[in-house]
Each structure stands twice: as structure tokens, then as C-alpha cells.
Design goal:
Blueprint: E1 4-8, E2 12-15, E3 20-23, H1 25-35, E4 39-47, H2 50-61, E5 65-72, E6 78-84, E7 90-94, H3 107-115, E8 118-122, H4 129-140, E9 147-151, H5 161-170, E10 173-177, H6 180-188, H7 195-205, E11 210-214, E12 220-223, E13 228-231, H8 244-257, H9 262-277, H10 291-297
Parallel strand pairs: 1-4, 1-8, 2-6, 4-5, 8-9, 9-10, 10-11
Antiparallel strand pairs: 2-3, 6-7, 11-12, 12-13
Length: about 300
């Protein structure tokens, strides 16, 4: 049976100089989750404006469950101005405040939380007190066996030590990138010497099941209490990197819920992340209707 997996937090439009793309880490995550064959659900909030209507329409076109997306008459739909450098790396300017800063706790969300097999949440959507309280309440009522994934997303000044520590305490899995790790260790007041020891510290300090550190095109490091796996990554022609980390997380969670070994989780997550990197936008449509087919057509090195 399909696993019910929730991307909890922001839905927004990534506004590039030449186009606008539906995005937001939880939304990207939920979409790739659905592509992987699970039931990906977006739990977020949009404004009652043209961007909000277009977001819901686009989700429907992508076959993405938007039934848990709230509508807000008082606040606009989220947007992010994105600039890409010559290497395809993105810089972001995030609008504030917007609809997803006002997530509401509702009976429908309580039911969804209790039905979920996994919930992925980040730090960005917790920049406002109302959304932070709602997200943490959502996580608190999930079933004991549900997996909670904290996908760190340090953007601009929209994070704090309290939010990061509370989120790691609530999580089973923490995923972050190689640039975010030293920042977090510095905030915690813990010397950062190298990635493996830092990941092991987080694993012990927050009683986690898995810590994942992504290294861009150089792969990833997965750390559990009794095993470690490093993956060198795949070299592809970069279209843009927006959403590649979210795709990695979705594939990782899919394999984790399937009971895969650490090396299998790592291989699939890196493949799917590389595929998104090789395509424009964070929600590419698999060629010929098959993710496997799309991966097979990429010249991995």
C-alpha cells in the first residue's frame, strides 16, 4: 500500500528572471514523494489571489494532493525571487509575511497528522510564531510509528537556535547540507571538526535514528548509531539546483519506509537528486511517465 507522506510548511512560487515555478521545500518534497509512488500530500496555506489559485491548479495538474492546503483571505501567496549564478547555484529573496506564516490548526489537519506515515518539515516555515506552534502541534499528534523528518533550511535570517533545537528534538531523521552543518554546530556551541563526528554528536544529543549530510554534486554522508555510508554522488549536466535537496529527501524517506539498507537509501536518494538537478525547476515530469526511465536516460558518471 502507498505510504501517506506529508510535506508540512511553505508553498510558494520561485520567481526567476524568465519564469515562475511552483515550489517550497515541503511542496517539492511531496511532489517527488508522489513520483516515487507514495501518496504525497502538501499541508500549507496560500492566499486568495492569482498565485494561490494557480498553485492549486498546478498541483492538480501534477497529480499532487492539495486537499490540506488552506486558503487565506488576508495574506498573499508566498513568493521567492531566485537568481542563478553561472554554475546554476541559487540565491533566494523570500517575501515576508505571506499566507504560510499563518498556518492554522484545524480538525482536518489533526486527522491528517494521525493518518500520516511520515511528515517532513523545515525551519523556514517556523519563522512565525503561529506557524511554528501549528507545525509542532501537528508533529506532536502523529502516531508513535510515524517518521518525522527535519529538513533544515537555513534561509536569510529566518532561523534561531531555539527553533533548530526544538525541531531536532521532535525529529527522527535530520537532513542538512554541508554548509548548514557548521552553522548549526556553532549555534549549539559545539566545536566542528569534521562531518562524521558532528553527525554522530547530533545523533546522540537528539536521540535521532538517522542524520544525513548532503554535499551537492559530491554526494552525501548518512550516519546511524551503528553504521555509516558515504556516496560520491553523480555528475550530471546542471540545469539548476532548485529542489534537488528536497528530491533527495523524498527518495531517502521512500527507501527508509521501505526498510532499505543504508547503501540503497543513499544510492536512490543521490540518483533522484541528480535527476532534478539535470532538469529545469524543482518538479520535473518524468519522461515517458516513468521516474526509472528518466534516471536511465541520464548519463551518470
Amino acid at each position: 500500500m502507498k505510504k501517506k507522506i506529508v510535506g508540512l510548511g511553505e508553498v510558494l512560487w520561485d520567481v526567476f528572471p524568465d519564469r515562475s515555478c511552483l515550489g517550497g521545500a515541503p511542496t517539492n518534497f511531496a511532489y517527488i514523494t508522489s513520483v516515487m509512488g507514495d501518496a504525497g500530500i502538501v499541508a500549507s496555506r496560500v492566499g486568495e489571489d492569482s498565485f494561490g489559485a494557480e498553485a492549486l491548479l498546478r498541483m492538480n495538474e501534477l497529480g499532487l494532493d492539495s486537499s490540506a492546503v488552506q486558503k487565506d483571505a488576508a495574506h498573499r501567496t508566498g513568493t521567492v525571487n531566485v537568481e542563478l549564478d553561472a554554475a546554476g547555484q541559487a540565491r533566494f529573496e523570500i517575501a515576508h509575511p505571506v499566507a504560510w506564516d499563518f498556518l492554522e490548526w484545524t480538525p482536518a489537519w489533526q486527522l491528517l497528522a494521525r493518518q500520516s506515515d511520515a511528515v517532513c518539515f523545515g525551519s523556514l516555515a517556523q519563522r512565525s510564531e503561529q506557524s511554528r506552534v501549528t507545525i509542532q502541534r501537528f508533529l506532536s499528534v502523529t502516531r508513535p510509528e510515524a517518521i518525522k523528518i527535519f529538513d533544515v533550511n537555513l534561509r536569510q535570517s529566518f532561523y534561531s537556535l531555539d527553533v533548530l533545537a526544538e525541531s531536532m528534538n521532535l525529529a527522527d531523521i535530520v537532513k542538512l547540507n554541508e554548509e548548514e552543518l557548521p552553522k548549526i554546530m556553532n549555534l549549539l556551541g559545539v566545536p566542528h571538526k569534521e562531518e562524521r563526528s558532528a553527525a554522530s554528536y547530533l545523533l546522540r544529543a537528539y536521540d535521532l535514528k538517522l542524520v544525513c549530510i548532503t554535499r551537492g554534486g559530491r554526494g552525501s554522508l548518512l550516519v546511524q548509531a551503528d553504521r555509516v555510508h558515504e556516496h560520491p554522488g553523480f555528475r550530471v549536466q546542471v540545469a539548476d539546483t532548485v529542489g534537488s535537496g528536497d528530491a533527495f529527501t523524498a527518495a531517502l524517506v521512500h527507501e527508509y519506509l521501505a526498510g532499505s539498507a543504508l547503501d540503497r537509501m543513499s544510492e536512490v536518494a543521490n540518483q533522484v537528486g541528480a535527476w532534478v538537478t539535470s532538469e529545469l525547476g524543482a518538479m520535473p515530469v518524468p519522461k515517458h511517465g516513468s521516474l526509472a526511465g528518466s534516471l536511465a536516460e541520464i548519463q551518470f558518471q
